[in-house]
Amino acid sequence: MWHMTSHLRRFNQPFVQRKILAILWMSPVYGATSWLSLVLPEYEGYFAVIKDFYEAYVIYQFMSFLIAVLGKGDREAVVDLLAQHADHLKPPFRLFGCCLPNPYDSPRSMADAVLLQCQSFTMQFVFFRPLTTIGIFLCNNFQYYGWG
After folding, report:
1. Consecutive 10-residue runs of the chain (148 residues): their mean pLDDT?
2. CB-side exposure of 21: number of CA atoms within 13 Å?
3. Distance (Å) of CA 6 to CA 11, 15, 27, 49, 56
4. What is the pTM of this model?
5. Nearest to 24 by CA among 2, 48, 49
6. What are phi and psi of 24, to 5 degrees?
7. Do the beta carbons of residue 107 and residue 83 sit within 8 Å?
């Protein structure tokens, strides 16, 4: 909490500090939902939904934070930064791409592909995590456990 209040007192870079505050709120949200789940076990499913929605939001905010810090909010600046260190980058996963020639003709194109893969995996998590949590919640409410 002290770290959060110090960011609020010195709000010099709001574009970055809003993301930091969203990430720092993760611990209180987890703590509150966990405690409430112990105190009110009949509402545990509802608290799990809240927790997982906020977790997905924090993952999205972390990816936005990285772009905000590394590229000052500009994706192309992040690609340029990654292209400078392209020798350390592992080529992104390509489905059925093992038989095809290497499509990355420059370090910049590979850096762009790596960042795009990170962003798409992040958005995949942000989209599917709440859906799976809601699915588990509904299955538990209807007492469907998938047995025979």
Report:
1. 71 84 92 96 93 95 94 92 87 68 80 90 94 92 76
2. 14
3. 8, 16, 16, 30, 25
4. 0.82
5. 2
6. -65, -25
7. yes
